[in-house]
């Protein structure tokens, strides 16, 4: 029976990730023993805010990788995002299945009534995101404060400092503590759980706030020439996670790589279709960018007439607010559209989820603090864990009264929908060659008016609208775009 020497950092989270690696390897290779060695990296020893400037990239990984090269250990467990994007060593990596890569903003409950917030981060990317967050959380100003340390240390610093209001944290880190923390150190787990209860969480959507390249993925490093160990680890490698993380890291390498860059890049997967989101500063032109790339996109012949063509004049339904009071007290609420919405409706709601970024920003404008987003991916997308919602109750979805469509959530009607198609919309409907549907109701009404639409090119978002339309049109004939703007850019001949 072979004994494998496994090395990782000595923090609580690193020990959890080491347990994850061991369990994954032993699941595929039961006749293995492990000798665990913990060590502090340069980044653990130097807690200054700009440690990377003094020591270069890989401050959390290089010293551990050196132990591997000198054959003092057999494998090393890393957070993949900490590894330099260019590997100049004679080592290779495999990855475990990726956990949720999103960032979380944690705001002290005591600071929720403040107009301005000081949020802790040592990441240039997250500091840059603070400039964008004003469109998503209802505070007048947001300032970045330098903070370093492991997850518990950072929480404790914010809790004890009256002038600090919150911090950024990886959602994967929080999720792993709740899944594995008790196995590693119950006392540390209870301490973390108690600290987290002092905060209100906001899970940031990847489409607007892409994470660090490879965030949420655990990498296992080994010597390239160790063929026997390579065979063992190849059984563990989660190929999709590995390929996505490599693609993100290659994207980051265009600008030199490293944690000093204010660039985020994340690949998300919905309906087995991948989308790469990127945002940050091009340090060559010094200009900021915000892009998305449909990695699954097939070549499309653009057409002269799309539906809708003029979104400002598009009108298919009349919406009427339902006068009866909607009781949202202590409920988890999903808001699909910000129609007929007021701030007072959400006064006592326990947790608020927006269907997408547009709805989120509209809610923010009226002063509602949104906790998470489905990011236009639909009801099955990355629903927040119970340690964020703090409730096991079934969520409620705000929708229109006439909605009879299948949903995994309970429905609360807050407006009524009645057909009301204007002349411009009718005209566009009958000349269009390609269609984008923002709701199944619009699609259903349109095919009654013009049945041959079923034989035309149709597109929609990947959520419940897709699920319903794909029962009428074969999935292979239904294109997917996250927004009308993306559809217009890809389908309309200019």
What is the third-level CATH name, the topology of one domain? D-Maltodextrin-Binding Protein, domain 2
- In order across it, which strands form the biggest sheet? 15-20-19-16-17-18
**Gross CATH architecture of one domain:** 3-Layer(aba) Sandwich
* Rg result: 25 Å
Proportion of residues in β-strands: 25-35%
CATH class of one domain: Alpha Beta
Query: What is the overall silhouette?
Result: globular
Helix segment tally: 16
Instruction: Please report the distance between the alpha carbons of the first and last residues.
Output: 67 Å
The CATH superfamily of one domain turns out to be Periplasmic binding protein-like II
* Major sheet size, sense and barrel closure: 6 strands, mixed
Number of strands: 23
Global structural class: alpha/beta
Low-confidence stretches: 43-48, 51-56
Amount of helix: 25-40%
Residue-averaged pLDDT: 90
């Amino acid at each position: 029976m072979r004994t494998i020497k496994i090395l990782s950092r000595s923090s609580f989270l690193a020990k959890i990730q080491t347990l994850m690696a061991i369990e994954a390897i032993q699941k595929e290779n039961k006749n293995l023993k492990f000798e665990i060695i913990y060590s502090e990296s340069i980044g653990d020893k130097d807690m200054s805010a700009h440690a990377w400037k003094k020591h270069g990239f890989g401050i959390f990984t290089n010293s551990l990788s050196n132990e591997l090269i000198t054959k003092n250990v057999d494998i090393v467990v890393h957070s993949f995002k900490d590894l330099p994007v260019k590997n100049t060593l004679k080592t290779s990596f495999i990855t475990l299945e990726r956990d949720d890569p999103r960032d979380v903003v944690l705001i002290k409950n005591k600071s929720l009534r403040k107009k301005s917030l000081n949020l802790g981060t040592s990441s240039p990317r997250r500091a840059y995101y603070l400039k964008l967050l004003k469109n998503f959380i209802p505070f007048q100003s947001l300032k970045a404060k330098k903070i370093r340390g492991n997850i518990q240390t950072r929480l404790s610093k914010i809790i004890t400092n009256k002038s600090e209001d919150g911090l950024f944290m990886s959602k994967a880190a929080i999720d792993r503590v709740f899944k594995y923390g008790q196995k590693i150190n119950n006392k540390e787990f209870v301490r973390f759980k108690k600290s987290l209860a002092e905060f209100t969480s906001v899970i940031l959507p990847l489409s607007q706030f892409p994470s660090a390249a490879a965030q949420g993925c655990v990498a296992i490093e080994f010597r390239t020439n160790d063929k026997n160990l390579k065979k063992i680890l190849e059984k563990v490698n989660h190929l999709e996670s590995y390929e996505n993380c490599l693609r993100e890291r290659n994207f980051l390498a265009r600008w030199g790589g490293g944690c000093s860059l204010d660039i985020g890049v994340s690949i998300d997967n919905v309906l087995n279709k991948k989308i790469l989101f990127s945002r940050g500063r091009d340090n060559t032109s010094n200009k900021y960018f915000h892009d998305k790339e449909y990695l699954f996109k097939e070549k499309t012949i653009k057409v002269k007439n799309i539906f809708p063509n003029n979104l400002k004049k598009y009108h298919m339904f009349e919406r009427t607010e339902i006068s009866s009071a909607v009781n949202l007290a202590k409920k988890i609420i999903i808001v699909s559209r910000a129609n007929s919405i007021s701030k007072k409706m959400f006064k006592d709601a326990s947790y608020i989820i927006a269907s997408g970024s547009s709805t989120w920003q509209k809610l923010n404008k009226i002063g509602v603090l949104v906790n998470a987003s489905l990011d236009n991916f639909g009801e099955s997308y990355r629903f927040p864990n119970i340690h964020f919602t703090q409730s096991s109750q079934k969520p409620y979805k705000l929708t229109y009264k006439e909605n009879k469509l299948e949903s995994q959530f309970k429905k609360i009607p807050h407006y009524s929908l009645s057909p009301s198609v204007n002349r411009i919309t009718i005209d566009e409907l009958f000349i269009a060659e390609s269609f984008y549907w923002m709701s199944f109701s619009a699609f259903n009404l349109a095919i009654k008016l013009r049945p041959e639409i079923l034989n035309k090119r149709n597109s929609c978002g990947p959520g419940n609208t897709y699920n319903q339309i794909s029962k009428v049109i074969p999935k292979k004939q239904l294109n997917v775009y996250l927004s009308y703007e993306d559809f217009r850019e890809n389908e309309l001949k200019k």
